[in-house]
Amino acid sequence: MTTLNEADAADRRTVGFAERIKAGTDAAHRETEQSRFVGALLAGELTSDGYAELLAQTYLVYRELEDAGRTHTGNPVASPFLHDELLRVPSLEADLEFLRGSSWRETVSALPATTRYVERLREVAYEWPAGFVAHHYIRYMGDLSGGQIIRRMLERAYGYTTDGLQFYIFDDIPKPKVFKDTYRAKLDAAPLTPEDQQRVIDEVNFAYRLNGDLFAALEADIDRYLAR
């Protein structure tokens, strides 16, 4: 007779880790998508500075995440996910310069929610390679998925083409679906125990909450950015 533990183990072998992450974080993902700030942005209801403020907070997150990535070269868990073509900091810097001018760095100030996000990255993304992967997954797989829809909506709403949209443009990834399929295969092959995998799923859920808190903080000040 098959025991429950044996059945659970068989299920994990049948359902890959990438699919388990998707299923285990779907509710948190959907909740994050309900942001009024992002909805107003995509509807063309915000000023360009409102968009720039979102990018400024995003820049602080990616700067920390990509700094953490440089510490994992050669690590068997994290290094398979390190691709230069994914790096977003230079693109964010270009977009912020386009939107706010050459002195844009003087305009970037972390919101409390962003500070908490960055602090979490400092807690887990440097010393825990699988934790780095959890945050890497939510950011870059999102950029290559929903981020491409956002790009097209921003093009229509604000008339941006390349300048202002560099963050969403992956010139060195001409076929995002192929790249994402390969990424998921690497997740499935990652040398992680079932317990490690669950920790990653929990961390992805936490990352979605951090992202949702950041959207909520921007929404709290949305009147400042509404186009008149």
Describe it.
This protein has 228 residues and is mostly helical. It has helices at 4-14, 17-32, 36-42, 48-69, 89-100, 112-124, 129-144, 146-158, 176-189, 194-220.
List the helices and strands and how they pair.
Blueprint lengths: L3 H11 L2 H16 L3 H7 L5 H22 L19 H12 L11 H13 L4 H16 L1 H13 L17 H14 L4 H27 L8
Helix pairs in contact: 2-10, 4-5, 4-6, 4-7, 6-10, 7-10
Notable traits:
mainly alpha; 10 helices; globular; about 230 residues
Main beta sheet: none
Give the total of beta strands.
0
End-to-end C-alpha gap: 69 Å
Question: Beta-sheet strand percentage?
Answer: under 5%
Discrete helix count: 10
Mean pLDDT: 94
Class of secondary structure makeup: mainly alpha
Query: Helices and strands, in N-to-C order?
Result: HHHHHHHHHH
User: Rounded to an integer, what's the Rg over CA atoms?
Assistant: 18 Å
Low-confidence sequence ranges: none
Spatial shape: globular
Helix content: 55-70%
